[in-house]
Amino acid sequence: MAPKTAPKAEAKKAAPKKAPKKEKEEGEEEKTKVPQPDREAFEASLQKIQDAIDKLQKKQASFNAKISERSGGKDEFYAKKAELRAELDELSKKMDELQGKKEEIEKSVSAKRDQGKEMRANVNNMKKSIGFTSEKDIDQRIANIEFQLCTESVPLKQEKALLAEIQQLKKNRPKVAQVQQMEAGLASFDPGMSMKEQKQVINEEMAQYRDAKKKVQEKMGELMDKRKEQLGDLPDIIEQRDAVGKEIAEKIKERNELRDSFRQEERAYNGYLAEQRKVRQEKAAEERA
Question: Which pLDDT value is given to residue 2?
Answer without folding.
Answer: 45
